[in-house]
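[job 4471] stage=fold_predict status=RUNNING
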Amino acid sequence: MTAKIFIDGEHGTTGLQIRTRLAARRDIDVISIPPEKRKDRAARAEFLNAADIAILCLPDDAARESVSLIENDTTRVIDASTAHRVAEGWTYGFAEMDTAQGEAIRNAGRVANPGCWPQGSIAFLRPLIGAGLLPADLPITVNGVSGYSGGGRTMIEDYETKGKDAPQFMPYGLTLNHKHLPELQTYAKLSGAPIMQPAVGNFAQGMLTALPLQLGHLDRVPTGAEIHAALSDHYSGIEDGVVQVAPLSAIERTGDLDPEIHNGTNTMTLHVFVNDARAQALLVAVYDNLGKGASGAAVQNMDLMLQGL
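[job 4471] inference complete, writing structure tokens
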């Protein structure tokens, strides 16, 4: 039997990307609500309850409403909003986060797709804290830049209208209360709230997140080689994972830190830069904010869940 997939919100940025990624698939049947009924509650309920997997590409409140419209125990859900990322009963959809996460997603009825911003930092912190190389109470600051597509339709239209006159680099989240902080703290297993300082660049998609670490005050200072080895060991042990660790090298600069380098893919590359003499490290993740950061992760989670049908 061909699985039925319903994308609730298929005309938004993430929904359109998912449709594109699924266009050539013949192993699934993507069912679509007629355009004139997209805001019809009863019609949405009908499609949600007819789906084997519903992917929600909606604002938070609308995503919660969609979940409430599901009246059966067979429709499984992937929610791309922030509504359920730290909610009880929902499985976090970062398959490479630990060795058991792929299996948890495979068997889950409700999966919260990760946000683009927290994923890179979680990809570093979860394994390193788990390996005992970093303490859970280490003060953390996350910096980075993302393409303007991460800001949704309004930001996309604004940047594309302004063209070269749009800001080349625009920091935001300056109230230090970014909506992804609970997600980052929870799944990185940090005991305190980190600082997240994101920025938007004048390019459509792609991103990098940077995690600078001051290690000199730790009781035991890990070397760069130990940090790199722990990450390499972790990700090499993930079956069908899409997170890769770049070779450890002492370089001043590299073109591999182009935020657009993985656009159109679901790949995430982790880079480790260190100065052991100063007990400092800089960890940089590069990925597509619309790929591993959104639609690519949703399709990856969908494929895992299909294995559990």
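[job 4471] summary: The CA atoms of residues 100 and 238 lie 9 Å apart.
[job 4471] exit 0
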